[in-house]
Amino acid sequence: MVKNLLAAAAVFLLLGAAAYASFFIAPTDVKQGLIYRILFLHVPSAWTGLTAFFISFVANLLYVWRRQPRWDWLGISAAEVGLAFTTVVLVTGPIWAHPVWGIWWTWSPRLTSTFVLWLLYVSYVLLRTLLEEPDRRALLSALFGIFAFIDVPLVFGSIRWWRDQHPQPVVMGEPGSGLDPIMYKVLFFSWFAMMALMTLLIRQRYRLEAMRSDLETMQHELEAA
Amino acid sequence: MSLLPNTAVLFGKELRTEFRSRELLTTTVVFILIVLFMFSISFRPTSDESRQIGPGLLWLAFLFAASLMLQHSFLSEQHNDTLSALRLSVSDPFAIFFAKLAANTLFLLLTELLLLPIFATMYNVPIVPVFHWLLLVFFLGSLGTAIVGTAFSAISAQARMRELLLPLLMLPLLTPILIVSTEVTKGLFDRAPYLQWEGVGFLAVFDLVFLTALWLFGEYLLEE
Amino acid sequence: MPPVSSPVGLRFENIDKRYGGLLALRGVSLTIAPGECVVFAGRNGSGKTTLLRIAARLVRPSRGTLSFSGDSTGGNENTVRPGFVAHATMVYDELTAEENLLLFARLQCVAQPENRVESLLQEVGLEGRRASLVRTFSRGMRQRMAIARALLHEPSVLLLDEPATGLDPQGVTWLAGTIRLLRDSGRTILMSLHGESEISSLGTRAVRLDAGSVVADTRTGATFRSILTFADA
After folding, report:
1. What CATH number has the domain bearing residue C201?
2. pTM of the full predicted structure?
């Protein structure tokens, strides 16, 4: 119990430090003013979401190989946390784009890829609700998760190729948008803080899933008796 | 008792079943026709606009149609539990997938070829000079769609809400196919048509990647 | 019927099968000698079907192992392919009787498939309907199709899940005769049945399942009759 509180406290401290750095340590951007600082939330969320999905992918592979319920629990936990971070990317995108460029949405590579990613993992979560038998649910959603993650590099690749055919102005922290060295440091520190948050969230969600699964087993046993 | 003979036998079965009733092909063709017509009504594109948006509409229509048509693939095997009979009879479960995805690719390709002249007429786009290239792009795009759709048909056949589930699973995953196929087709519909080999290569890679994934994991999709 | 070249036995070792929280089979251990004809009795839901599907290798046990023994395995158990007659007929409605059997014969690389299909159609009494779509068949005819399909590759092991379902008395007599021939030619047969009948009397051993466990076995002293008649109690 104490360990949990300490861990949570450490994560919040890290996040606080990252926020402080975003506002006070990173230099001002001449063109965009204050709003550009959302970069330090927008970009690391994308990277963290991707990391969470990768963890889910590995868990899915392990489940198909070993068939132990804990990999199924890890798979769904990491996927949901990844979905949360991905949602942050999709929400901060318009918040950033509107004041600066006057549009709500841009089909920038990051936003487009993230949107597809979001759709893929929403499907993953939805699929699980439509499969009732626990072993079948775990296996089929793991297999879908594997296919979904294999698609990720193809999604990024196809979008980049399309962008190369149709050059667009570089916006919102896309590669080539020209960042200051200090900005990079703050960016990576933000990412570090978010990874800590991700780990915390996955652990909590995992525990919840383990408990839910035990409950389900007990319910079935009661019904059968 | 190897993979290819089993696949050939099952491929024959898939074709025979479909060509006996032709239900799948006819309904799919009509569906795409309706979609193209409705797109055309809502946009009423000029000839230049057709060249711009036509490819996207065409591929969208194909993908929607595929996501409906491919449900049938494994759903049909639930009737009388013929899937178990297949699993008992073949030496490599991948033969079941291989045969089905080959048949599905063929069906998709047939519907596309049937509709291409109609599309060209409705949208005023010349296709004859680039027909062989179009065939290549359609083949690679349909193959990728069939691979993913056939695999996921095995999943959705076991779930609730299966009519909505297959499109939900398939379509986001096929985004790369939509993006690249549309782009390459656009180049072929241009006033000075050109083929983007990078795009063609990308489609081939997509197909190879998912064919391999299906080969590795297919038997687990069929587990009871 | 020619004798089977090398008889095959089976062993279930500590088999569990779990569906969610429900244990369909718990700790089932059975050794079945080559050539035995075992009747499985038990209420609906006692696990008979699950056990047969595990033997058919359609279902993977949650725990425990299934193994086959005998010369024909040649060290590779994957070459044993039991013939399976299930609740569902496992044939295609949209194909004719002949097309169905040819399909499965070719998939299993049966030698001279056309001849084999022809002789089987005659054996099950469907040669007059060989060119009719299975969709037009009665329940009894479909069951004969299912049995024909299971016998295509001349299996050493036969798994029959309530095989008399849908058969009229004539059909049951015919089936009993067929099973007798198969048994006498040395094939190992596992059948799940409800109650006593012409078919159950062919068994050389009976086992009763209840709630997923083996509760009685003629090998360990129970009588045939007691196992079968309590099945519906």
Report:
1. 3.40.50.300
2. 0.92
